Records
---
Amino acid sequence: MAVTIDPRTSVFGDRLIVTGTYAAGDNAVDLSSILASIDFAGANSSGIIASRPLVDSATHTTAVVFAPDVRIDGTTIRIAGGLADSTIGDTAPTQAGTFIAIGRRS
């Protein structure tokens, strides 16, 4: 597992923007040494990811991409690969990617 935090952060007021990368298999980015809380977090996969079907009320199916799934857990970003049945799981992402977090500075 190899989470890398970019050395140049951006500051505005008491907020900090942190960016970095994660490796395939990394499912947590701990930012507790930099941030007191996280207001926003996002992640992008480095390659093409599989789509999952989304079924509407008229039973039409459309292929939609929902990955990686990102959740905020205190000062940790949880990155999940998502499950084939369209639920959020704690499966580690199968591809590396980049992340961004905006939060209150420590």
---
Amino acid sequence: MKYVQQTMAPDEVIIAVAHFPAVYDLISLFWLLSIIGIPVFLERVIRKSTTELAVTSKRFVFKRGFISRVTDEFTTNRIQHVKVKQSFWGRLFNYGRVQIKGADFGELNLPLIANPTRFRRALILSADDTNPEIEVKFAAEDLV
């Protein structure tokens, strides 16, 4: 969360951080074991290590990139719709994809993350400016 922490405002707090699921590492290892899989394995490891997904008390941050950097940041009150997609295996092992839609920024598809419903909940609660106990609720659930 180096990028997120560097760009935070003084009164901003990290509420939730998304992580790649364990199945992502397992698939990466399968690629490593295949004959042509070493470049794919390296690409997956670099992608995982250079991707940051976080919800703070003021905004959502999606940073990715190794040599060049691409970031999507917006205040969470601009979110109109959050969709969680989980397959059968995703439900079983608690991973999935989150889609975020807003009027100003269109649709943003996040990579596979662990605990997608909890991340969705963090997005929705952080958009609620009238909820002063957000940090307390999420600290108790150990989202960060």
